[in-house]
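Bumping with the actual sequence this time:
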Amino acid sequence: MKKHLLKKQIYQKELQIKKMHLHRSSSDVCDQLYNTLILEKAILKKELEKLEKNPLLEKIKKVFPKKEKLICDYFKGV
């Protein structure tokens, strides 16, 4: 059920982003709101990815050293 809710929220963010894209260059406030929406969408997509991961595979990955996470990792597929 949480996956369905996250997908719905992501879709709503995409609609908001499309609407804000038209007004993005009109003011700094619109530009900041647009950037905030992009970040919120990226966070929601990351949460959805976590829910879809295989728990057994994740336990195996914990044995190996972790790769350092970069800010650009959150924007893949945005």
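The tokens above came from a reply further down the thread. The radius of gyration is 16 Å.
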